[in-house]
Amino acid sequence: MADLSDDQVRLDNGHALRSIVLADILQTGQELAPYVITVGPKLEERAREAKNLLRAYMLEKIADHALEKASDYLRSEAGRLGPIISAFSPGSGTGELFTIEQQEILFSILEPAKNVGVHLSSSYMMVPRKSVSGIFAATREEYVSCAYCPRKCESRRRPYQGNYQHSRTISNH
Q1: Residue 147 pLDDT level (bands cut at 50, 70, 90)
Q2: Where are the beta strands (DSSP E) in 39-171?
Q3: What's the total number of domains in the chain?
Q4: Which residues of 114-144 are buried (b: 16+ CB within 10 A; e: fewer)?
Q5: Range of 100's domain?
Q6: Which of 34, 30, 59, 33 lies closest to 44 in space, CA to CA?
Q7: Are 117 and 40 contacting, i.e. CB atoms less than 8 angstroms apart?
Q8: CATH number reported for the structural domain that contains residue 141 in this entry
Q9: What are the DSSP calls for 6-25, one per residue?
Q10: What is the tens place of the pLDDT at every residue in 50-108?
């Protein structure tokens, strides 16, 4: 990473990610680990083709579990960056702190269509859908987007704490 401003992280490779939370939490010069993880299209295809609703549901859950385990593994590998690793995913939570449009930047950096077969739709959704993307980074405290999202969902990882409040003031360089 090269530089931070109020809502932007300018990377050494010339790309820039717009995100209030990234610019606020990360440090200038900090190493980041961008990622795109997928379980591929096979389980999704089998679930879609399943004649039995329970079988389709079980295949979806297996794919969810595989994606979670792959994410956990990659997060543990990112542990070399520091003792506390946070994941920042475009569009997570309410999508306001790190917008879904930032997928385009991650995809231009990582080229997952060529490398792992994940494509980005015109609405910035990943195909196959059992895919996740983002950035792992060392942080002082773990950032979890759920804390700033009022929606109620079964995968909530932290109680809702209200709107995100900047932890420090960043000046433009």
Answers
A1: confident
A2: 85-88, 119-120, 126-127, 131-138
A3: 1
A4: eeeebebeeebebebebbbbbbbbbbeeebb
A5: 3-148
A6: 59
A7: yes
A8: 3.40.109.40
A9: SSEEE-TTS-EEE-HHHHHH
A10: 999 999 999 999 999 999 999 999 999 999 999 999 999 999 988 889 999 999 999 99
The answer as to whether 19 is a domain residue is yes
Dihedral (Cα; 133, 162, 81, 126), 10-degree rounding: 0
DSSP state of 84: S
* Helix (H) or strand (E) run with residue 58 in it: helix 53-77
The answer to the question of residue 87 being in a domain is: yes
pTM score of the predicted model = 0.86
Q: Is 46 part of any domain?
A: yes
As given in the structure block, the two tokens for residue 118 are 């994940």
10, part of any domain: yes
User: Is residue 118 very low, low, confident or very high in pLDDT (cuts 50, 70, 90)?
Assistant: very high
* Angstrom distance (rounded) from CA 103 to CA 99: 8
